[in-house]
Amino acid sequence: MHERVAIITGSSRGIGRATALVFARTGYRVVVNYNHNREQAEQVLQEIEALGSNGILLGADVSKAQEARDLIEKSVKEFGRVDVLVNNAGINHDQLMLRIQDEEWERVINTNLSSAFYCSRAAVKHMFKKRFGRIINISSVVGISGNAGQTHYSAAKSGLLGLTLSIAQEYGNRGITANAVAPGFIESDMTASLSPEQRQQILSGIAVGRLGKPEDVAALVLFLASDEAAYINGQVIRVDGGMRGI
Ligand code: NAP
After folding, report:
1. For a pLDDT cut of 70, what percent of the chain falls above it?
2. Which residues, 6+ apart, have CB-to-CB distance to 76 below 8 Å?
């Protein structure tokens, strides 16, 4: 894998961080992207280097078209190619629909969904030339089921599924696959604010009896990026420990 390059959006923390590390451990060169948390992203880069791998740090707010495009172009300028794009950057903002302001709607849609379109459009151009590419979009189980209090977040995560399926159709015959991963409840800053009661209720619906770890998601992303996954295209795969009711 020493030639291959993986760009992981939002890899300063959580699932993105775990994904960046598992790719580095496998020998990929990794682009660590952050928005606000440069310090944490620097630590991820240090861990990558400690593994004997090669990485770079690129700050970019991928919800903005120009910054997303620059992220891909700077990565290609540095490494000469992009083989894997993991559209992981995301935010949630739980609120009942009647209370969601226009700005919050746009921020959640742009961060979770438009970012993946901007980055994929820029990356596919380069993957095209190599006739190889892997686009992996981090959706959510609520993108499949919907969820009260998450209309904007669920809509964005459902939108990612349509984006994934369409990219899979457009570029499958060029060696480029697109798949979506739908995590359930994963231990990260995003789920840290769950109350003990919410946590207990969620746990009671998870067959394996625990919340997921970022590494549980990263393991699937790594496999979907591999040569062995060449015939898996346009799929949505849940990583949720066997959840009921969502
Ligand atoms: P997290 O710990 O809150 O981390 C979010 C990451 O996204 C951070 O690295 C953050 O960067 C980055 N990010 C946010 N907005 C960005 C932007 N505009 N541009 C670039 N990077 C941005 O979240 P997580 O739990 O790891 O979630 C990762 C992905 O999995 C998200 O798409 C999330 O929706 C999805 N997911 C999570 C769960 C879960 O239970 N945790 C379940 C289903 C799906 P900075 O820190 O630098 O701002």
Report:
1. 99
2. 82, 126
